[in-house]
Specification:
It is built from 3 helices and 6 strands, in the order ααββββββα. By secondary structure, it is of the alpha+beta class. It has one domain.
């Protein structure tokens, strides 16, 4: 009988000490900062074949990919001209970030298609054509 009582008390204490489940990726969303938007615009100037042709640009909220390592991600969807001068259609690019620094990008990242991800118009990227 004592063993059963001890087990019941221990289980009760352990369940009282449980922590709240970590946030899901979708719950960790926050709007991208102006500094991050600016960094992406600067990177696009060096990566996109014709950055001045960018149109229909959107940027997603920032989400945590790995909270322990501080790695976050943001997605950018945009349409730009290719080397033949034709528009490619909206392409999604996933961008990994740590402490506001861009770590890398993945063209066609399937995570950018998650319907829980909220997008905002990315006028700064479209405005490259005005420079």
């Amino acid at each position: 009988m004592k063993n059963h009582l001890w087990i019941a008390m221990t289980c009760g204490l352990l369940s009282a000490c449980q922590t709240v489940a970590p946030q899901s990726v979708a719950d960790s969303q926050k709007p991208p900062s102006d500094a991050l938007r600016s960094a992406i615009v600067q990177a696009a100037r060096n990566v996109v074949f014709d950055p001045y042709s960018i149109r229909d640009a959107e940027i997603s909220n920032v989400v945590f990919l790995n909270p322990q390592s501080g790695i976050e991600a943001v997605c950018v969807k945009a349409n730009a001209k290719n080397q033949l001068g034709g528009y490619t259609g909206r392409q999604a690019t996933g961008i990994s970030i740590r402490n506001g620094t861009i770590l890398g990008a993945t063209q066609g990242d399937p995570r950018c298609l998650d319907p829980r991800l909220r997008y905002h118009r990315f006028k700064e990227l479209e405005n490259l054509k005005s420079i």
